[in-house]
Write a structure and sequence with these properties.
This is Penicillin-binding protein. With 130 residues, this protein is α/β, with parallel strands linked by helices. It has three helices and five strands. It has helices at residues 5-13, 52-60, 87-96; strands at residues 38-44, 65-69, 83-85, 103-108, 111-117. 27% of the residues are buried.
Length: 130
């Protein structure tokens, strides 16, 4: 049985790291975009390594994707994804209390529904769930 991309992302986000500091239910700090009903925000930095598989999973979810490149060193995002960079982007990440990069947030109406932090190695935490 094949999972829908959004379901896969939601299941992955449903298993946050024990040391996650982003608080569920919190309102997003100030940002430059108009929030949608549901969206995915990827907060990352230049030292995250290859995020190709993570970007693929996030883009496959079919939700609007916001990219926040924190820590003042430019790092690429997939074509077509607008990236927010600079001191304000870093302040956004710190106001969220991001504990590790990359951090993926599932947001609804400007509030954090779920968060996943840490190194992504291609495993969305779905082993044994089929």
């Amino acid at each position: 049985m094949r999972r829908a991309p959004l379901l896969t992302l939601l299941l992955a986000l449903g298993t946050p790291a024990a040391d996650a500091r982003v608080r569920l239910g919190d309102v997003l700090p100030a940002h430059p975009w108009t929030s949608g009903e549901r969206e995915v925000i990827v907060v990352y930095s230049h030292d995250c390594g290859d995020l190709g598989e993570l970007w693929s999973a996030v883009l496959a979810a079919g939700l609007p994707v916001r990219a926040v490149n924190a820590e003042d060193v430019p790092a690429p995002a997939p074509a077509g994804v607008n990236v927010w960079r600079g001191p304000e982007a870093t302040a956004f990440a710190r106001a969220l209390r991001v504990g590790a990069y990359p951090t993926v947030l599932l947001v609804r109406g400007g509030r954090v529904l779920n968060a996943w932090e840490g190194t992504f190695g291609g495993d969305l935490g779905l082993a044994g769930t089929r």
